[in-house]
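Hey, resending since the last one bounced:
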Amino acid sequence: MNVIVVGGGLAGLVAARHLAAGGLDVELIERHDTAGGRVRSRTVDGYTLDRGFQVLFTAYPGVRRELDLASLDLRAFTPGATLARPGSTRPLADPRRDPRSLPATVAAPDATLGDKLRVVRLWRALADRRESEAFAGPDQSVVDYLDERGFSERFVESFFAPFYGGITLDRDLSTSAAVFEYTFRMLAAGDIAVPANGMGAVTTQLADAARAAGARLSLGTTVDAVEATDDGARVEIGTETREADAVVVATDPPAARDLTGVESIPTDARGCVTQYLSYPSDQRLPTGGKLLLNAAGDEPNHVAPLSNVAPEYAPSGRDLLSATFLGTPDESDDTLANRVRRALASWYPDRRFDLSPVATDRIEFAQFAQPPGFYRGLPAADAPDGPVFLAGDYTNWSSIHGAITSGRTAARTVLDL
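The structure tokens again:
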């Protein structure tokens, strides 16, 4: 049985690996010259730049199942965050994992004692919550969920809004509370990390595993059409037609909908702009390995001290940070860099940062929108007609875990034919 996988992102690579390991003849076709989809890295002037700010949640079951985490040489962010507003930066840490942070965390003015106790209660309540339990039954927005649990407005606005704004690209917290519950549990159970060689190392590992299982990767090739036939499926590539017993479509959501005609594939997008800036190492951000959250606005929403966490991301003598703006602001790179400079100057009025822009990633479709109850309308892997199948986080929920898990699910569906 021969199978064509269309799309070389995480879902497609995992699907190709499992299909080939199951004894099938597998070809993966990817339109870019490199695999990875939204999870890629590049090197610019000695800096490692991921495609937008991305991190790996090490507790995700799909991540633990499909990746060799030890060989990725992970560098973990320090649990918690630094809350920043003009004239003030305050650490907010997880005292369970960093006991030395307890006094500063207890004294943090952005969270009341009640807020801190509610966080502990929420950790305990969600500790055993399975993914299937989170994404089932009634749903509501994150902001309503937090309000029902009594969190103060100040704590929601200063911590949850920028932190989950970074995860869901939705600072208004209108996203499904199911996404919040599951990611909150994963944050408590594991680390947020990046590989020493960048997030592209995740893709490299999956691509190597797919090849090792016997799959062929055809890069730099664009699929124009996919069609079910009476005895299989065909793929159109320019003037060439390729026949297959089955096709797995693992492209981005808009392309998947165009190729398969499945209307339930979500195409409402959330975007972001991530700017990378460098500066001398002797001006290092004093946050350690914590994320810097903008507690007073969204320009930028958050700043990640990348080389504080992974020194390999920057050349000797230089540091690298990323600043992420939500949505897709169309201001120039220089304008965005000036906003980052102004933000840091206001947060650290006694410090100097000689920032130099390295690159800017403008990602219009970083993830699909996930309003309350979104998961009830998502397509299944076998939603298309005939032996055509779907693999992508849009069959699950928008995350690296969702993408990886969807690839495994699609492969199993094909192997069960």
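Residues 56 and 193 are 5 Å apart (CA to CA).

Sorry for the duplicate.
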